[in-house]
Amino acid sequence: NVLILDFGSQYTQLIARRVRELNIYSEIKPYNNPPKDLSSYKAVILSGSPHSVRGENPPHPDLSEIKGKKPLLGVCYGAQYLAHFNGGEVGQSNTREYGRANLSMVKEGEPFLEGVSSDSQVWMSHSDTIKKLPEGAIRIASTHDVENAGYKIEGEDTYAIQFHPEVYHSTDGKKILENFLVKIAGVAQTWTPDAFVETTVAALKSKIGDDRVILGLSGGVDSTVAATLLHKAIGENLHCIFVNNGLLRKNEYTDVLKQYEGLGLNVKGVDASARFLDALEGESDPEAKRKAIGRVFVEVFDDESKLVENATWLAQGTIYPDVIESVSATGGPSATIKSHHNVGGLPDYMKLKVVEPLRMIFKDEVRRVGASIGLSAELLGRHPFPGPGLAIRILGDITPEKVRILQEVDHIFINGLREWGLYDSVWQAGAMLLPVNSVGVMGDERTYEKCVALRAVESTDGMTADWVHLPYEFMQKVSNDIINKVKGVNRVVYDISSKPPATIEWE
Ligand code: XMP
């Protein structure tokens, strides 16, 4: 088990991914709230950061239980931090140090850099530089512009590198992480989906015992995998509830209930559409809409949990990007992008404890886990769909008529992707109903109707995404079908923004 202390870098999640690609389990914890018990961690990595060690109140956690006692790797800010606070000197760098660079010196015979070529490409992203190494340090790598690109502390398993080994553009980055974690720290490479299932099921069994658990199913990959893991662990004590919030895709409620019949799960469908739509009436602010949906969701769960006698746990299919994008709400160092309603806990009066078996893993890893427990490729291949559903794809306020329009548009788009064999090459797709009317002409009549934006993205984890170059013939067909068949829409546009700087959903 590897601990990654997060100083707020945009690349911290990538460190976790790279480590897991080595089949090693890792956990990210905010630097200002590190775990109290460090005994289970075999190695520690310090992330980069938007902060400067020379700024006011730089992140400065106490590493006395780590440095010199456990294998430690500082990356970028982490490297500067280890220098600045141990007798070295960090100053502003004279040359720009962003992007591609090449090593010009790699210390021979250094196990940490074994297999790294002497001119290996590395990725830099910093404005400070290490001018003087800390006490006891030996330089192990340089680039043309950065003399102290890598160093180690003699007599300790402490290493530091100015560049980012976690980005794909650092050609030997994964090798360096492997050298550090496997060769130096001796961490076992045993994190596979099968091992994850085994340890998670065992952990759920001992955590939950004979208690009853309720779980909100959404029909999506995450909650289905979470439910299946729990079912393996506690069997009939798992009570699944599938809530129709009135913001699902067309026919989704009945289709999904049918799909679960075959899985042996104990599922109850609850149609609460009217409650959700009432709560959303007149609400047009994205965060207010999410909060209203979150509130009603909790109320519906509260009502339902009372019907399950002695339910003491609420299980959720929260995955890692949900946690990280909402993390500042819980005191972490990165910024809140969107407050995903399914993160952030429950009101005290519910007295349910929360269990989230997928909290530390990414979507593609959830799919690998799902495959290893035998879920069908069709189910695992379903596109992600946000908890607040169409509410965050109808920009502005929500009415039943707008929901109907968007359901029809979405249905044509998604069915079209399936019919044209494009569905599986797209990571996520959907339609947005825009709060603008525009002028059109249909059968010699002037129209003044709604515009919809189609969005299809490719991604591996939802953290970054790019728009998909769908074939023009396909877009032409879908656009025609939408305008001809969906009353109230006279214009279709396609979203060609990547994430970042845009997000996948428009709200
Ligand atoms: P964004 O829009 O932040 O979305 O690029 C990234 C992924 O998260 C989904 N998403 C949500 N999921 N509750 C959810 O359960 C939410 O409030 C929410 N907002 C976005 C989005 O569909 C995409 O897969």
Automatic annotation (TrEMBL):
<dbReference type="InterPro" id="IPR029062">
    <property type="entry name" value="Class_I_gatase-like"/>
</dbReference>
<dbReference type="InterPro" id="IPR014729">
    <property type="entry name" value="Rossmann-like_a/b/a_fold"/>
</dbReference>
<dbReference type="InterPro" id="IPR025777">
    <property type="entry name" value="GMPS_ATP_PPase_dom"/>
</dbReference>
<dbReference type="InterPro" id="IPR001674">
    <property type="entry name" value="GMP_synth_C"/>
</dbReference>
<feature type="active site" description="Nucleophile">
    <location>
        <position position="76"/>
    </location>
</feature>
<dbReference type="Pfam" id="PF02540">
    <property type="entry name" value="NAD_synthase"/>
</dbReference>
<dbReference type="GO" id="GO:0005829">
    <property type="term" value="C:cytosol"/>
</dbReference>
<dbReference type="Pfam" id="PF00117">
    <property type="entry name" value="GATase"/>
</dbReference>
<feature type="binding site">
    <location>
        <begin position="218"/>
        <end position="224"/>
    </location>
    <ligand>
        <name>ATP</name>
    </ligand>
</feature>
<keyword id="KW-0067">ATP-binding</keyword>
<comment type="subunit">
    <text>Homodimer.</text>
</comment>
<feature type="domain" description="GMPS ATP-PPase">
    <location>
        <begin position="191"/>
        <end position="382"/>
    </location>
</feature>
<dbReference type="InterPro" id="IPR017926">
    <property type="entry name" value="GATASE"/>
</dbReference>
<dbReference type="GO" id="GO:0003921">
    <property type="term" value="F:GMP synthase activity"/>
</dbReference>
<dbReference type="InterPro" id="IPR022310">
    <property type="entry name" value="NAD/GMP_synthase"/>
</dbReference>
<comment type="pathway">
    <text>Purine metabolism; GMP biosynthesis; GMP from XMP (L-Gln route): step 1/1.</text>
</comment>
<dbReference type="GO" id="GO:0005524">
    <property type="term" value="F:ATP binding"/>
</dbReference>
<keyword id="KW-0436">Ligase</keyword>
<dbReference type="InterPro" id="IPR022955">
    <property type="entry name" value="GMP_synthase"/>
</dbReference>
<keyword id="KW-0547">Nucleotide-binding</keyword>
<dbReference type="Pfam" id="PF00958">
    <property type="entry name" value="GMP_synt_C"/>
</dbReference>
<keyword id="KW-0658">Purine biosynthesis</keyword>
<feature type="active site">
    <location>
        <position position="166"/>
    </location>
</feature>
<keyword id="KW-0315">Glutamine amidotransferase</keyword>
<dbReference type="InterPro" id="IPR004739">
    <property type="entry name" value="GMP_synth_GATase"/>
</dbReference>
<feature type="active site">
    <location>
        <position position="164"/>
    </location>
</feature>
<comment type="function">
    <text>Catalyzes the synthesis of GMP from XMP.</text>
</comment>
<keyword id="KW-0332">GMP biosynthesis</keyword>
<protein>
    <recommendedName>
        <fullName>GMP synthase [glutamine-hydrolyzing]</fullName>
        <ecNumber>6.3.5.2</ecNumber>
    </recommendedName>
</protein>
